[in-house]
Amino acid sequence: MSEIMLAVDDLWVEVGGKIVIKGISFEIPVGKTHILFGPNGSGKSTLLRTIMGFSAYKIIKGKIFFRENDITKLPLAERAKLGIGISFQEAPAITGVKLNQLLQILKNNGADIEEMATNLKMENHLMRDINAGFSGGEKKRSEILQLIIQNPNLVLLDEPESGVDIGNIELLGKYIDKLLQKEVHHNEMLGNIRSKSGLIITHTGHILNYVPADKSYVIINGKLVCKGNPSEVLEQISNNGFGHCEECFRREVIKDFKGICYETK
Amino acid sequence: MKQNKLNKDDIEKMELVGLAPDDKDRAGTFTVIDDEIDKSKSKTEGVEILGLSQALKKYDWANDYMWQLVDPHKDEFTERVWKYEQEHGPVGQFLRFKKGMISKEPFQSCFFIKLDRFVQTVHNIIIVEDEAEFHIITGCAVASYVNSGMHIGITEIYLEKNATLSYTMIHDWAPEMIVRPRTGIRIDSGSKFFSNYISLRETKITQMYPTARLVGEGALVKFTSLILAPPNSIYDLGSRAYLSAPNTSAEIISRVITKGGTAISRGNIIAEAPHTRGHLECNGLFLSDDGNIDAVPELTAKVRDTDLSHEAALGKISEEKLEYLMARGLTRDESTQMMIKGFLDIDILGLPPALEKEIRYNLNLMEDEAL
Ligand SMILES: Nc1ncnc2c1ncn2[C@@H]1O[C@H](COP(=O)(O)OP(=O)(O)OP(=O)(O)O)[C@@H](O)[C@H]1O
Ligand SMILES: [Mg+2]
């Protein structure tokens, strides 16, 4: 039995007066990376942001466990301190706070800020206000840079590659791999186990060309409808659209669908 | 009626508003306690400092600088000082920065009140001659037991040609103090005037509207104010600039925080000549459910060829931004502090290290006080 980093158990979430997550359960073992697919507005960001603990997201039912600790009621900052980190789909501009100023505070793993910023082509942004006037791609690199310096154990990435050009996706992919310790061989037998887990939202799956993932889910209308091998599920979605997943979910099984239809209730 | 001498407590209060008691790193010192000059000293030949009454006796021409930039009949407060001067003669400094002289060390002055319920009326004349470059730090404070009283300060500042003056003022009043400074500045061609105002303590009301007249080509003014209004305090502050010559420019920047008090941030730029530029900026932050912030920007263009703008933003610290920082592992307090620091972090350019130090110190106090 591998150790579990994150367990979500029958989670129901309300945001802005509307129930957006409707009974979701899944687990991510230590060292594994899972992928979330799903149409716009299906609740992907809501799920990630609820796991992180943002105050707008009210858990009305269910539990979240981080390394076997019940964190359902734990405030955001304490979850971050425990080792959960997130990259924002739309990062707000933090005027008055320089990127470098925040990185200096986050620095907890001896990483060289200058060097890492240079690697991510952000060295000229260190003295600028966080995300203020950053281009779309720069914001995404700024998010990954902050996470690398923060060094969380559970990495939640909300569309890290959307709006990013091919060359920069490769660059981001390289450093997301680093964030997730993909260079550490994951072998339970040899005991050489990486300590990081990831949950990544992607529409295009481009990031999968650089970041190996272990499992994926499709979320539609606040429910997990499908799970399976990331590239196979992506292929299904690309060929047949999300309608097919929904169909699968409704009829419990579709012969040619390579993912496994989620338990229906 | 010489007051009892300054005690340790008083000196500490004066230090808080920037006064270096031993004149260290200062070009000179001028202090008034209640209505008497306590110290008047220049440490460099570039600076002439005299009591204003003394200066009026010494120089015939000194009178030409009296009540030129502030109208004695403007309001009851100017009137009061004017009447006082008719009877007793003026109390205040006559400060002359000599032609072509430059000092990186600021000249310091302090107006201190030791008597409760005292009405302090001071009048300062400051002249910066051609090509001179100087800095002033002025602190105003009261003894720790003083609760009420009034301070009216008339200040007339003259910048001749191609001169530069930075004027940093730090206030530390008391809950029932009424504060009514009246300041006029005349800026001739090629000269630059930088005003920095910081106040973070209680006052009953502090109201002022310093007015700069940019009368020579290429003159520049920048007013910066940083205010924290505690509960029951009223700050009504504005800055005004008349762009009366071509190629002049004005910038008025304010950052106000309320912890329950009222802060009114006014600004007025009047463009009367072509090729002029003016910008007003007021940001206000609520750190309490009570309190009021008013931003009242006014722009007047009397010519077509000018570029005037203003921006204002009032509100509390955005929860979204706080949570962004908290998601990185900062506590709510740390995130709030960081946002306040960021809010107050504005470029105050061209200050020498000794002044940077004073401002930094007061900003840190303000951040602490804000939390
Ligand atoms: N703060 C909020 N207030 C009101 N409604 C919200 C709020 N946050 C999310 N929602 C709603 O919840 C639903 C799910 O939003 P969410 O951001 O989770 O979608 P998503 O799957 O990430 O979509 P996308 O692919 O477009 O990013 C949407 O209908 C959205 O409008
Ligand atoms: Mg989303």
Question: What does the model show?
Answer:
The complex is a heterodimer of chains A (265) and B (371). Chain A has 265 residues and is an alpha/beta fold. Chain A has one domain (4-260): 3-Layer(aba) Sandwich (Rossmann fold), CATH 3.40.50. Helix content of chain A is 31%, strand content 28%. Chain A contains seven helices and 13 strands. Chain A has helices spanning 44-52, 76-82, 99-106, 113-119, 136-150, 166-179, 230-251; strands at residues 4-15, 18-29, 33-37, 58-66, 69-70, 84-87, 94-98, 129-130, 154-158, 197-201, 215-220, 223-228, 260-261. In chain A, the strands form three sheets. Chain A has a seven-stranded mixed sheet, with helices on both faces. A four-stranded antiparallel sheet of chain A has the order 2-1-4-5, with helices on one face. A two-stranded antiparallel sheet of chain A has the order 7-8. In chain A, strand 4 and strand 5 (69-70) form a beta hairpin. In chain A, helix 3 (99-106) packs parallel to helix 5 and helix 5 runs parallel beside helix 6 (166-179). Chain A is globular and about 50 Å long. Chain A starts with a strand and ends with a strand. With 371 residues, chain B is α/β, with parallel strands linked by helices. Among the domains of chain B are: 1-154 and 168-174, no CATH class; 320-371, no CATH class. Chain B contains six helices and 21 strands. Chain B has helices at 8-16, 52-58, 76-88, 319-326, 332-344, 353-370; strands at residues 28-33, 36-42, 47-51, 93-97, 107-113, 118-128, 133-142, 148-159, 164-172, 176-179, 182-187, 192-199, 205-208, 211-214, 220-229, 234-243, 249-258, 262-271, 276-286, 292-301, 306-316. Chain B is globular and about 65 Å long. The mean pLDDT of chain B is 94. Chains A and B meet through helix 2, strand 7 and helix 3 of A and helix 4 and helix 5 of B. The complex binds adenosine-5'-triphosphate and magnesium ion.
